[in-house]
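Lab meeting tomorrow. Please check the following:
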Amino acid sequence: MNPKIAVIDNGVSSAFKQFLTANIYIDEECNVKEDDYCQSSFNHGTNCFLIANKYVKDKSFVSVRILNNDGTGTLKKLPTALEWCCKNDIKIINLSFGSTHFQDKYYIRSVINHYSNKGLIFISANANIGYTTYPALFSNVIGVQNGNVNDITVNMNIHTGVEITAPSEHNICFNECNFKTTASNSYAVPVVTAEVYNILKLNPNYKIHDIKKLLLSDYYKNITSPDWIETAYIVGKRKPTNAKPYFKIAEGDYNEIKNNIDTIILLNHDKKYMYKRKNIISFYHESFNKEYTNFFWCPELKEKQIKDYKENKLGEEIPIIVISLDKKIDEFFFLQQLKSMFYNECFNALTASLNAESVLYDLDYIPEKFLFNANDAEKLFLFLNNEAYYKMADVIIISSNEFIDSINAFSEFIKPQLKINIYKNDSFNVSMVDDEDSSTIEFYKSIDKLAIKNIFKDIKKLLSGED
C-alpha cells in the first residue's frame, strides 16, 4: 500500500476536493469533522497540495484543516490532527507552518516527539523571516527553506534546524488551472514531502532517522542538543540534582521495558547498549566517530560544531551574564529555576552550563575547552551571539560550579554585562557586578527557590539600570 500524505494547513479549495482521499477539519473543541467549508480561492493549503501533487504520481492526499484562512490557529488542535492521522494510517505530515515564539517550543516539541515515536514523518518550513522556527528546529522534523535551486539540496543550519533547501516557485497545471507559486519556505516543503513519499514507497518501514540518513548522510552533525527524547533509559549514575529532565525516565530491566523507550543515555562506558536500535546519548569519548542509524549526541559533537563554526550574522548586542557557583550549589536546579523565571516574564534566556549533563534538563551545553584563551573565547562568543540572534534571545547566561578558573578567564576575555559570584562562607554570599561597576551583595542561608527568585530580581534591576 502506498504511503499517505496529510497536508495540515488551512484546507484545500473545493475545486480539488475530489482528488483527496479524506477531507477533515478540527473545530474549536478539538473535534474531528468532515470539512464542508467552501474554499473558493487558491489559499495556502491548496497551493501546498497542488505542489506536492505535481511531484507525487499516486493520489494519496488528505487535507486536515486546523488553520484559519489567514494562516492563524491554535496549537491545541495539532495533537488531535496527528492522532487522527495515526489512526488512519497516514505517515507523512506536510507542515508548512510553525512558530518563532520561544514559549511555543516546549509544547510543540512534546507533541512532535510523541507522534514521531508513533511513526509519523514530519516535513516543516522554517519561517520566511529566517529565525528559528518550531517545529522545523527539532531533530524529529525535516526542516526546509526555499532557495534558488532546481532540486532539493542539503543546506544545514544548526541554529534553525533547516537541513534542506528546495525550490518553491512552481508552475502548476492541474484541473484546468495554470499559475506559478511565489517564493516561500512553505512552498518548498511539498517538494521534500514528495521525495519522502518516494523513499517510503520503496521502504515503508523507514523512520525519520532512516530518511534523514538517506537524504543528509551526516544528519546527526546538525544536532546541537538531544531534543528528540520522549522516554529514556539511563545507564550509569546522573549527577545529583533536583532539576527535572524534560522527558520521562523508564526504570527496571532493559529487556522488559525496551519497547517503551526511544533513547538510551550512557553515563558510563557500556558498549553493549550502543547498537540496540535506539537513539543514543553518550557521555564518554569513544563513541563520537562511530556510525549510527538512529539519532546520536555526545559532548564532542558540540565541540566540533563550535570549532568549525564560520557564520557571522550578529544582531543587536544582548546582555551576557556569567555566573560562578559554589560547588555546594545544585547548578542544574539553579539554572533551570532562573531560566523559568525569565520565561514566566516573557524573556527568552539562552541558559548554558559547562557540564554536558545539562542537556538532559533543557539547558545548553558549552564545552569548557573554549574558555581558556582569547581566540577560542572569541569563536564561542560568535557562536553564542548567532544562536541568540536566530532564537531571538533576550539574554545569555553561562554558569559553572566546577570550572571556576575557566569561567573567570572567559569573563576577562568577553567582559560580560553582569558577573555573579555565589560562594559559601557561614552563609551563601551573592555578589553581582555590572559592566559599569555597579554592584550588590546579598546573603542567603540556602540557594532555594525563594533565594533564586530574589537573585532574579536583582539581575533585572542591574540590567535595567533601576535603583
In short: The two ends are 69 Å apart (CA to CA). DSSP finds eleven helices and 23 strands in the chain. The mean pLDDT is 91. Residues 130 and 368 are 30 Å apart (CA to CA).
